[in-house]
Design goal:
This is VOC family protein. Pfam families: Glyoxalase. InterPro entries: Anthracycline_SecMetBiosynth, Glyas_Bleomycin-R_OHBP_Dase, Glyas_Fos-R_dOase_dom, VOC_core. It is built from 2 helices and 8 strands. It has a single domain, classed as 2,3-Dihydroxybiphenyl 1,2-Dioxygenase, domain 1, CATH 3.10.180. A hairpin with a 4-residue loop joins strand 6 and strand 7. The chain has a 4-stranded mixed β-sheet, covered by helices on one side. The protein is of the alpha/beta class.
Length: 126
């Protein structure tokens, strides 16, 4: 039996690392740390051992192909409307509009990032 959550890290494929870093910085306010890991360019999302949740990276290289198909990552946001507005302002597209789940008390939405990936949003407490 697992003693922790099963997912510990993610990588979002990108074609243009500076463009993608700028997009996520504008939309979410993230500050990235750039690294080269296994000969691939990475922009690491913020991470703190003392906070809950996982972290990951924007990843550029021949094995990283942006897509709207496959796994969907959900980013937490305090204001889904504001976040979606920033997505539009920075050239992204809304793929699934803000939708309420009144049974569990949250909103979700999905957007296409600057690289063509499907990314989801989650806002608790509707």
């Amino acid at each position: 039996m697992a003693t922790t959550n099963p997912v510990i890290y993610f990588e979002i494929p990108v074609n243009d690392l500076p463009r993608a870093s700028s997009f996520y910085s504008y939309v979410f306010g993230f500050v990235f740390e750039n690294e080269v890991i296994d000969n691939y360019e990475m922009a690491l999302f913020p991470f703190s051992e003392s906070k809950s949740g996982i972290s990951g990276a924007l990843a550029k290289g021949d094995v990283y192909i942006p897509t709207k198909n496959g796994v969907i990552l959900y980013f937490k946001t305090a204001d889904i409307d504001d976040t979606l507005q920033k997505v539009i302002e920075y050239g992204g597209r809304i793929l699934y509009p803000k939708t309420e789940n009144s049974q569990y008390g949250f909103f979700i939405a999905e957007f296409e990032d600057s690289e063509g990936n499907r990314i989801a949003l989650h806002q608790q407490d509707v």
